Records
---
Amino acid sequence: MLLVVLVGFGGGTGAVLRYVVSGFASRWGDFPLGTLVVNVVGSTLLSIAVCLQPPTSIIYFFNSGLLGSFTTFSTFSYETFRLIEAGRWLLAISNLLLNLGLCVTGVFFGRWFVTRIIFGL
Amino acid sequence: MSAELKDVSMRSAVDYGLGTVILIAGGGFVGSVLRVLVSGVLSGVSGTLVVNVVGSFFLGFFMYSLGYGGFFSRDMRFFVAIGFCGSFTTFSTFALQSAGLGFTGFIVNVLLNVFCCLLAVFAGRASSILLLRRGVGWS
């Protein structure tokens, strides 16, 4: 029960942070930049957090709750769908490839950062 | 469709009022708890795929209903769209899981999530239009 509450508070915090951060970089022309920024930052931070192997309560609050909510797939697919619907194929495909490419790069960067920079291996 | 789709982007105005923040945090609380409960039943990539597809359907249905002037009030956008749907679905777990799958698994997982979620938004849009045509909640 306590773990569920930890996830919930992390999730509420993550959702508000996503709203604030994506508000700073909401759009670049018609490109949905805000969602890209939160997804890349959140994926990188999750990779770092997982590699650091924190205690269970931190995993529930920060990894599952906060970072899970800070990033979003539904807004990403909705915004991509709207671009396709409007016939803006170049923007839609750029949005798709940038989210996938940069988030996965962020995951690998996070792993590298923890093993090389923090643990010095 | 006789009604025109008003442009409803995810954020038409940036509003940092206390009420807005509470609505987003409340939606985020419920969405993240439900996501973790689903991933407790369906662990790994299948759980993430399910929450992403279901969340995308709900967001598509909600946003198009709002856009066509349907059943929802604009303030519900903060609770349902940004709070609940945003937190129920996740990109960070999806990216982390995909990166750990190896090349073939990576391609399959990425294509499944992207195609199923785009299809889910389309299905949400279609459901919204169908209900509005039947006169449910037409305003």
---
Amino acid sequence: MITDLSSAIWTTLAAFLTFCIFSFLYKDNPFYKIAEHIVVGVSAGYFAVLLYWDGLVPKLWDPIVKQGKWYYLIPGLLGLIMWTRFSKKYSWISRFSISFYMGIATGVAVPLYIQNYVIRQLSSTMLPVHFKNPAGFFNLLIVIGVLCALIYFFFSKEHKGAMGSAAKVGIWTLMVGFGAGFGLTVMGRVSLLIDRVIFLKNYFASVFGHIL
Amino acid sequence: MSFYEKLMKLDRRWVYLTVAIAVVIPVLVPFKVPVYVTPEAKAVYDFVENTQPGEIIFLAIDYDPNAMAELQPMARVIMRQVFSRNIRLIICALSQNGPGMAEQLISQISKEYNKKNGVDYVYLGYKPYPGITILAMGQNFRIPFPTDYYNTPVDSLPMMDGLRNYDDVKGIISIEAGNVAEYWINYANGRYKAKVFFGVTGVMTADYYPFLQSGQLSGLLGGLKGASEYERLAKQEGVATEGMSIQTVAHLVVIAFIVLGNVGYFMSKRYKGKEKG
């Protein structure tokens, strides 16, 4: 883990910042605030530099200046007028860029989203129900779960009688889904803690290993 | 104040301390737990295993350092399996804080297997607007990435010879921690019919099972558990496998607290009802 002075300094700083962040669990304090501000500052700075070198320079500056593609000034101008959002008087000008962007995004995304997030998902719930093997039974569960969850979101008829029972099954189906999501979220958060603890263990082992 | 009311008002810092102790003990006193391999994890492994040496897999490392804990073990074990089988890789990093971190990983693993940039792998790097980038790569990788991460023109790299778009790769393994995932499904699979496999954070896993069932995803690794399954399949025990025993203890503690909280809630309600009655 620590091979030279440089890695020793950076790893020690990382260990210190890890403790700073964990100190929030006791209560808010200046050490936590310092670490939090460093994370925000570094992320914003890194992203700004990345956008400049991977976005602005190759996508606008180089085509105009090095390749003489003057028509790139049009999207450049559309980008520039977005800054008028900060002026009350001239903010209407930014609507040209926004409408252009919205038009493209809608044209590209809407047909594909309907196809992939609605039609494909719908067709994958139209499953053969049988009892020859467990898969057929699970298909039945999927069909019932989807229908009942949809009934729960049908508000034009009061949830009473058969409709009410189906809506209740729908709620249970949703709860199972939320439970799975919550369980996996706990797993994810614990994984982050595990990573930090293993990091600290390795850090202390490499610093104090020769003493212990 | 009854015992159960005191339980309900327990300072949350005691919970943090207990979880911390539960995590630290298995780190100091390691033990192993069995790892059950799910079919969706095996599908990713089998895909790499069935890819022939010399063929190309597209690997998307689309996560920031804040998701490293869960996703770096996945990326590491997949890259090791790929390079050990002499499969070639084309890699991108479409999450804004991830390209530097991805580069560190790529250079470390490529050194281990003596793989050369431009010959055995190409690292394209980052471009803003992942949706547009993924869509453009479906036409030609050169549209969003005329140069690679190291600013070398991609046409000068031997591996890029004859390599145009998703049609020329065996499939896409996308390791995701954010909304870039939906672009891979929507554009790479939906628009260009590319075979897509996901490795995602635990938080995201439940959201992507419907896509597995619909066939839009061909395989799925979920969180650190998914990484440990892959490590077991690839016989490369690493951080994820080490983390499973710790995870088990931590989950038992969380379950105990949930049970305790519910017992406290219902018993204190009953106690209050008795006092009123």
---
Amino acid sequence: MLKIFSAIIASVIFASLAQAKETLTIYTYESFVTEWGPGGKIKEAFEKTCDCSIEWVGLGDGVAVLNRLKLEGANTKADLVLGLDTSLTAEAIGTGLFDKHGVDKALARTPETWTDDYFMPYDYAHFSVIYDTEKMAVPPKSLDELVNGDPAQKIVLEDPRSSTPGLGFLLWMKAVYGDRAAEQWKKLQPRILTITPGWSEAYGLFTKGEAPMVLSYTTSPAYHMVAENTSRYQAASFSDGHYLQIEVAGLIEASPEKVLAQKFLGFMMTPAFQDIIPTTNWMLPAGATDTALPDAFGKLIVPAKTLLFSPDEVFKNRRAWVDEWLNAMSK
Amino acid sequence: MLRNLTLAIALGFILGAVALGFLPLLWLGSGQAFHFDAYLPRVVAFTLKQAFLSTLLSVAIALPVALALARRQFFGREALLKIFSVPLALPAIVAILGIVGVYGNSGPFGGLFSIYGLTGILLAHVFFNMPLAVRLMLTRLETIPAENFRLAAQLNFSTGQVFRFIEWPQLSSAITGIASLIFLLCTASFAVVLILGGGPQATTLEVAIYQSLRLDFDPARVSILALAQLITCGLLVLVAGQFAREIQVIPPMLARIRRWDGQSGFSKAIDGWAIALAVGIVAPPILSVALSGIGNIRPDGSLLWASATSLLIGLASASLSIALGWVLAESAARQPRSFLKPAITLACLASLIMPPAVLATGWFVTLSPFADMSRYAFFLVVILNALMALPFVWSPLHPAITDSVQRHDRLCSSLGLRGFARLKLIDLPVLRKPIGLAFLMAVIVSLGDLSPITLFGSDTLVTLPALIFRQMGNYRMNDAAGTALVLAAFCFALITLAQRWSQRHDQA
Amino acid sequence: MIKLENVGFRYEDMVMNFNLQVAKGELVGIIGPSGAGKSTLLSLLAGFDDPVSGRISIGGADMEGVAPDQRPVSMIFQDHNGFAHLDVWTNVALGVSPDLKLDPQQHERVDGALARVGLSDFRTRKPTELSGGEKQRIAIARALVRDKPVLLLDEPFTALGPALRRAMLDLIREIQTERKLTVLMITHQPEDAKYAASRIAFVQNGRITHVLPTKQFFAASAPAEISAYLRG
């Protein structure tokens, strides 16, 4: 009797082990996995396509994710990393932790042709100065106008050393002004209300009314139009171009779930994933979509000119450029 | 014997935790090139300058306010003292938005002066630290025996003479300690400098460390900066320790003590102005937080979960903090002149000297090869919070335990009353009030702090401040304001509870 | 000299009512169980508590609304009779003037008082360096310097040994005789009252139930409550 009993137990256990789901551990930034972010829905959608489960690990922002990888090294639990942007990818590849994704690069629908073998894009948006239409009748129409404009109308900026929008704006200035960037920063300085550690604090100060302008994304007004039903906050279109942020995902070389990770990266380029992005992450989808974007997205500015440094350029020069910024601002 | 063992464990634990946090980074950094910045002296100079000015202002304003509160009984006095406990409980970003809401461009003073710069930093620091100083000074003033005031009445002391002969002697022994604590708090201040500083011109050591840990991830630089911080703050603690006078041991008094000074119109006016100033500094930002939050509270699962998590972590870390603080205070009380005293003081102030960001990173580096950090995140956060609460636990606990030790030790040993029996019969009842206060401060500090959580990212470990940041990160500024209000209300409720509890147990 | 007429006071849930007359130059002992209101009685006289009804007069003058420093009263407490951070001399000098600006005559008064209580050698010491008896002598010296006709003592010698208590009581009696002081003394040691007081007031439940000459108070024929208190 006992023998039969233990046999049944053993087979049940064996069966459940055999059916144990593979788990894909994905490191990403915090706002991706909150209840309002894309994480939950994407997990649902992906788990339908396989007998697997996703475990999200939310870590601060993109910079924090990269740092965590650097700290963990080869011991990292991550199978996939989602949430770096192109200004960080060269550094990420430099850690030696990533492997080529093996996904068809033509699937990417980014403003510029996608050429990276290690990372695939999942969304993008241009950086833009967002202004409060109730406080500012005439927004600047170019970076030049921003730099040389009325110091009484201020902008909240983010710190390039600790946030990707901050770094993005630094690169933007560099792309437009090249070697003259330092003096332009000095000209801009009286117009800067303050420099916050991250995007949240800057946007918080902006919506509180501390300054009529903030450095954010072209897609920010869409949130306010869709969720708050207001057109109060709009993006300023610059004739001299906007810097682009493309967010990417890549898989870890040492991961035991590489096949699953690759599957996910493929899934990432499909409408099942991409349709979720616009109204949860408030960025533009970088892959094929089935549903049309909400109306509000149609009202967003589309920059005529895109500025973007290659990841290698950023990697090589970042420290020097940040130091240059630091020197210009510290006087 | 047992006592020495517990002391060794407590000290070992704290210093071990700090070393474990700092050394790995030092080791990581030693491999890299070390280049000396011209930046460093500037950063150190600014750190000291803003901390010095902030401390000066906080203490200078706190003194007349504490004197006024000790002297006067008036309607709303209790409520005012409760409000004074709120600033330290608020997460920095919440308080900053509150301050900005009052003094910033969008506030009622709209653009009268720019708060983005040293002014803003000083304002915020005074907002945080002046109430703390007032409460600490008030605690000292409340130990003045009633007979002193009766004597003063009989001898016809003027208000100035009451101050000169009665109040100041009691305060002077505590002021060095209070000022040092506030100075350290200001050097460790972080979000305030980052957001209200206005830009890289205003960088302190703590901020520079944070920035070096971020995008750059430069362990070499972090080590240099952390060392600089360690040396500066460590020196300060040791120097201040020399000036600190021995704690006067006088048994704490009962309920309200009657005083006969301060009857003149002039005295009443001064006290009135002092209290009005204090209210004017503390209340408006809190009000701003409340007003922004009203109508924005979403009573859903995430709010409840965050509240429960915050409370659990708060209680756990407060308990650990009290346990550590108690052991250290007892030891400090029993050997007033040994070399251990500075070690104990340093241990208590460890979290102010070594930034939590550094500690957490160091622990991560050390421990992650051995264990899955997200599983142990809860315990690590509790330990980190306990260390951060230790300075606040120390302030009420140390004088009270010193007093108790001096009064009860001989009697207890003559009765053979030791260990657990003594704890239950003597120590706990006698020390109920300071323990209550210390526990409260520890919970409050833990509630408001964000840094430990962000460093051990975990999906389930979401506290109220973390929730605020999450909401802000998803454009939900109004929701964040609502959660901030909940946090502030939480603190207020805790404070009320603790006050009621400690009053009920007020032993004669 | 001292008159309390129907003086009412409420402390927590005890309602007190005091009636007492003390002649000039008398030393009256105040005895009673703990919590009876003895300290409150002195406190009312000194002006530290205000009665809700009745009349207190000292030296014929109504003490209603009179501040503690204006009353012709000096009070010595059980403890904390001085300022721990000031030296003995300064502690006594404060009795002359709180601004410590003393003219030569006042200086001499302080020196004299210190000599009278035997503390001349201790003038630069702090109270924390003194023994219990010496500490209380500071208060006595200060009372001397203030030179008020009424002296109130709230168990000042409780913590001292019998011989020392005797010595202090002798000192009090000497000073009393010299200056014709009216003294009210609370004590928990009946033998002290027996030794020094001419009359004794028994306080119970917020009332002075008996005032008897010392001999009668300690006699076997004393009222039942008193005997119960003294002999258990």
---
Amino acid sequence: MTNQRDRIARRRFLRGAGGVAIGLPFLLSREGDTYAQAKAVPERLITVYFPQGMPTSERSAGLTGVLAPLAPFQSKLTALRGLNCYADSPNNGHSHGSSGFACGFGTPVLSTKGGPSLDWVVHEHTQTDTPLPTLSAGFSGGDDIAETVRYHHSWRGKGQPNEVILDTLKLFNAIFGGQVLMPTGPTPDPVQVLKARQRVSVLDTVLADYQHVVSDAGGYSPSIRSLISNHMETVRELEKRAVALHLVASGEGPAIAAECKAPTAPAQMDSILGPPVNNLNPKSTPYFKEMWSIMTDLYVLALRCDLVRFGNVLCGSGGDSYPYECPAGKTANVHGEGFHLWSNTSIRPIVIDHMLWTMTNIGSLLSKLDDPTYKDVDGGTLLDNTTVLIGSELGDDVANHGMSDMPFWIAGGRKRFQTGDFLIPGGRSDVDLYTTILRASGINEPFGDPNFYNDVLPIIA
Amino acid sequence: MSANFSAARLVEVSVWACLGLLGCTGGPSSPATQGPVSSGGSVGTGGTAGVGGAVATAAVGPSAGRRLTKQEYLHTVNDLLGVDLSALSDAGLLPADQPPTGAGFRNDIDGLLPTAVRTDAYEILATRASERVVWASGLAAHAACVDPTAACRESFIRGLGRLLYRRPVSSFDVQNLAPLFETTAGDAAGFEAGARLVLQAMLQSPHFLYRLERLDHVDAVSGKPAPSPYELATRLAYLAWQSAPTAELLDAAERGELMGDAYPATVQRLVEGPNARRGFEGYAQDWLQLYRLDVRTPNEEQGVSPVLLAEMKEETLRFATRIALTEKRDLTALFTDKKTDLGPALAQVYGVQAAGQGFASYDLASDPNRVGILTQPGFMILRAAPERATIVHRGLMVLRIFLCSEVPAPPNDAATNIESIPTNLTDRDRFAMHAGTPTCKACHATFDPLGHPFEPYDLAGRFRTQDQFGNTLRSDGEARLDDTLQAYGSTAEFANLLSQSPSVKRCMVRKVFQYGLGRTLRGEDEVAVDDLAQRFEAAGRTYAAALTFVAQSPAFRAAAPNE
């Protein structure tokens, strides 16, 4: 489902490949135990979030209509209908459902979800040690920046978001280390080696500082120690990447795989703050689409190179209010003057077109994951070997913040799930789905609010 | 083919269209009956001296362990090192802070969560700052000597660390940081290169990025837990300046001038100091939620361009700063003052002749439809949808910002689209029909009347007398303030009512208190708010008075909660 704009954006992005090559330090993250050498398919789980829900009527006729972009992946897709979300929050329905998405808890505040998200639970259970523990990225068109639960869908626990990156350049820097200290010639540059070593020394010093604060010797309250401990985790991750970069700079590490050498940085695009690029303005669907193409390229590259195995891809956030124009008409606010007017027959075609636009974006991501030219360690595609959970914060009644019959799909999933269309009766909770995914992954821990849990769903292969 | 929206649009009232009965019980609470909001709970403001069950308990201190907000971080680096990181290429690396609630401040600890993205940004910015800081004017002052000796290195660490950590440096700090000099031993720049690495580490330290407060300091007189003089200096500096204490303030702390009888004079110096203006502007951006204008979706068709949005923010910030800081007036003048500064785009909205390309001052005495902050486009558009502003959004902003009140979340089954209501009515008439339905009535009856005075103003803030359907627009109405139903004949009269409302006046100092404590207020805090409100009233309700009384309050000076 790659369109002309996708191709243009991809070409522009990849044009930089002839520039200074910098590489991913991923190969060094496990002290020489490279992904290529490992030979075992690693556990991967990505959640893909899209906003505003989807009426049942658009999901009842198979992979047609707005779901046509998912049709190429039918043999790898499990569609779920009939599940409800029961999460609650202090604000309206978008925040209710957003707090519950991939987490299974409501929240008493809007700044944090109620517990760890699905991707993080699997990350922790598998003790995965990639340079980036998770990666969350995408776009958002929201005005309401007060509601963290609407943006961040990967959480280590309460108060610990894996912050979503809404900027192409920031995503590039997150993947490639931010500070370019890579060798530019056949022999190590002593200045760069020194800088890389000093960087590690600084981070080691910083890390010791955090460790002192969280220790008994620090003299701080439990809440401060907990907060600083959360921060320390991220410093430790950064320090690990710096060590890898130092080894690369000094020529002491193994060679970087050619396919993991990256192009020069993309143009900066931030879905909320801009700047405008190629006459496209932020908070518009053409801008989002351009961003999406670049960001999913980077995201898939990070997965291929085993920089990360878990995270969230954000295809908008709940309550996003931006203009939308299509052959069926236009609206200044696809949220308030679109989805919320679903029952208006003159407006519905515009909303349907927007749903198709969203599913086209998600289809393009799946297409990149399913690219047969890349072969995972078992010869399959990334999609084959990754559990991709696609979902939203609202369900059937998109006009009234309804959270019944939530739209969910599992793509890929390592053949752990039966494929096809499943209508789950009885008003079961989305927590049952999340728990089912964990069970299929061999994880028997409880997940989400136990009040919402009933049993695993009958979809495991 | 384009759908005809103006004809076919059904009533859509966004998220506040229909709210449950349980949470809303009438008009905005009076100071004596304001109660904490909870999901599904009662309407009001955090805590109460009456209904909420507040009792005279020991004051609970500010939250401890707050991360510096983005603005605090930028100010601090600039003030202490002379390095300006405010350019988008630098500051843009740091994600924006988000308040934890709709009426919260961005310095609330509940919203200041650590993330990997921030950690990466802090490292990059620390590196840039260490490279850009001028040795002679920025770092050399902390180096008594530059020999490669332990004594010189320790002296530098103690000098710079005292400023950046906002307290005397410990032995652990010295032992931890000093080895960084060794990594530059072969560097031609020698001591200076090592010093810059030390700076990099300090700028990523939890002692710099967070306002940590230890548990082991006790008040010399009472013997009870209390913040140390340095911690108190830090609280004061970030309250008044949004920045770190200066060396002089730390010296004052060391001399004991933040204790006992000397404290009020120290507070006064801060409140009137050169950074007070920046401190107020930072506070005002949160209090009035002006930061929302930075990320608001423009609507060019209705004239809401990015340029206009920027001018809107500038106007209200200038206006509030003039009233509060320059003229040091009663803050209720925010509702009644008739002068303002406008840029050329805003001048068009106001219907006045632009004075040039930049901002200029205007006296709006002859315009009966412009008065104070309420009719400023930057206020009226704050929470409006991209395509239109409603009385609901505007009423809610009055409720949250000036009445310190809140409404609970709508129930999950709240209807946002009631098709039976015709579209060609005024906002007031349409929402009156909503309010007539049982599930919508209670909450809409609370905030809709507060939005009625704004009906004649369109999305961009232009005054008009008729809407697109030819309906005559009204600005009169009745609002329940201070437990009394009060009638007004115009927006100006409504503004005047707010300016005289005890609830509004109490809310003004309550907001400063909330900001100072960096946390959501609790029921027991309302006793302190009552006391602050009395003193604020007696002192003429100036911002300086509010800041001073908050800084002098037992809660602000109390030990942080040991949780």
